[in-house]
Amino acid sequence: MTPADIVYTALGLGALAAAVVPRLVRRRPLSTPMVFLAAGAVVALLPLPLPQVDPVQDRVWVEHIAEVCVIVSLMGAGLALNRPFGLRAWAGPWRLIGITLPLTVAATAALAWALLGWPIAAALLVGALLAPTDPVLAAEVRVGEPTADKDDEDEVRFTLTAEAGLNDGLAFPFVLAATTLAAAQGVWSQADWGRWFAVDVVAKVAIGVTVGLALGRLLGWMFFRAGASALRLSDHMEGFVALAATFLSYGIAELAHGYGFLAVFVTACAIRAAERDHGYHRVLHEFTDQIERLLTAALLFLLGGYLVTSGFAELTWQAVLLALLLIVFVRPALGWIAQWGFVTGPRERIVTAAFGLRGIGSLFYLAYALGHNGFDGLASQLWALTGVTVALSVLLHGASATPIIQRLDRLRDARPTDGPL
Question: Domains along the chain?
Answer without folding.
Answer: 3-414 (1.20.1530.20)
